[in-house]
Design a protein that fits this description.
Length: about 150
Amino acid sequence: MTSFSTEQRDALLATAREAASRAYAPYSKFHVGAALLMADGSVVTGANVENASYGLSLCAETVAVASILSSETRGRLEAVAVTGGAPGAPGEGDTVSPCGRCRQILNEIAQLGGTDPLVWCDGKDGVIEMRLSELLPHAFGPANLL
């Protein structure tokens, strides 16, 4: 398993905060940003995109994974940083972690690359670090369909 320095973690969280600044969240006013680090060193970001028909809204992690799967960036997912909060203040409220849907979506790309990425979630009380497999134990994925 890949290990990361505090500086690498903090840089990825800063990138997630920057992504949150681009969120389209006129209804909830809750901006979420995600930054996904791939094995080749590339970082793909996403921000939540709300819709007046709430069920059509997209989470930041989903936007980032869609970007990866629709580009040539595909590869091993090594780490994920997620942050959220009021506009201009992501990471300053309660800790935000991927929702259940996003955990499954992150699992899809992780299983495709054979990884168990670190997930960093920040908030006013600091950073929570865990593996994706801790967030989604006994996950269903591509291997279950073979």
